[in-house]
Design goal:
This protein is mainly alpha-helical. The protein is built from 14 helices and no strands. The protein is globular and about 45 Å long. The N and C termini lie close together (11 Å).
Length: 303
């Protein structure tokens, strides 16, 4: 019996909820950034979220060897770079839907980074998907008038760092349980970026009750709850199966941005985002097919 067939439907439901909460996090963050400098916002957000998860992961952390704790914190420094690029890209972005699809390129970059750094051989589907994704990104750049905007470049850097982070997590800290590892990385990001903000950011705070509400929604829902549910769901299914469902985050983000901010897409933006999403589906086609067969009536995922 395949691992996909063993994965309960509860895992799919939780992962789908994770994508909705994560997409909501884009809205919460964009609203909170109106009154907070980007690095201070993301640093304090992750620090508080890490401290909340610490209450759940403390028993496991106490039993962990110090070398594993140190590795988790060090990998968190790489996570800091990824999330710093992300929040700066979000800060400068005028179109959340487009940014979300560019950020999702990190999924496609994972096997490519593995090839460059660790000599792994990417599946054939990656080489089919890559030119389609590049064409999609080129169309998004054309929409800006034959130039790459700062927000687009920052999101590409974030995607590359996330791809590197995923590779490092699967190799350097593979023996660290997911919840303690997430806690260590969130705290590491919080300390690094909050400290960096105090040095380089001079934007004044404008902490109105509305800004504080968006900030706390980012901490409690988009960070603490999102990672807790994601860790729980990923423990109930395979990583590749989970990755297929998590790709929906970009779709939800575009829909939420259209609803909340009234965003619309030009024909070039819509085509570019569609090509990027098509590339992600091609890259994960084996697992996409498994998921579809499992969800369709009478489907047999073992075929």
């Amino acid at each position: 019996m395949s691992s996909i067939k063993q994965a309960p439907w509860q895992a799919d439901a939780l992962l789908l909820l994770v994508t909705v909460v994560a997409a909501g996090g884009w809205i919460f963050s964009k609203e909170a950034l109106v009154g907070m400098p980007p690095l201070l916002f993301i640093g304090t957000r992750f620090l508080l979220a890490g401290l909340i998860l610490l209450g759940f992961s403390w028993p496991a952390l106490r039993r962990m060897p110090i070398r594993r704790v140190r590795r988790g914190l060090l990998v968190g420094v790489l996570f800091s770079a990824a999330i710093a690029f992300w929040v700066l890209g979000l800060h400068y972005s005028d179109h959340l839907g487009e940014s979300a699809f560019i950020n999702s390129l990190g999924i496609l970059m994972v096997p490519i980074v593995a090839r460059l750094l660790f000599g792994d051989r990417p599946p054939r589907s990656t080489w089919v998907a890559l030119p389609i994704a590049l064409l999609g990104f080129a169309l998004l750049s054309l929409n800006a008038g034959f130039r790459v905007e700062a927000s687009q470049l920052l999101m590409v850097c974030a995607a590359l760092c996330f791809a590197l982070l995923i590779n490092v997590n699967t190799r350097v800290v593979r023996n660290v349980p997911a919840l303690p590892l997430t806690t260590l990385q969130l705290i590491s990001v919080g300390v690094v970026l909050t400290g960096l903000s105090l040095v380089v950011e001079h934007q004044p705070l404008a902490l109105s009750p509305s800004i504080l509400s968006w900030f706390m929604a980012s901490v409690l829902l988009a960070s603490s709850l999102r990672f807790f549910l994601q860790i729980k769901a990923q423990g109930m299914t395979t990583p590749s199966h989970a990755a297929v469902i998590l790709m929906l985050e970009a779709v939800w983000t575009a829909l939420f941005a259209a609803w909340w901010f009234g965003e619309t897409m030009t024909a070039l933006q819509l085509l570019g985002c569609s090509l990027i999403f098509m590339a992600l589906l091609i890259n994960r086609w084996y697992w996409v097919r498994k998921v579809l067969l499992r969800w369709l009536p009478g489907g047999n995922p073992s075929r």
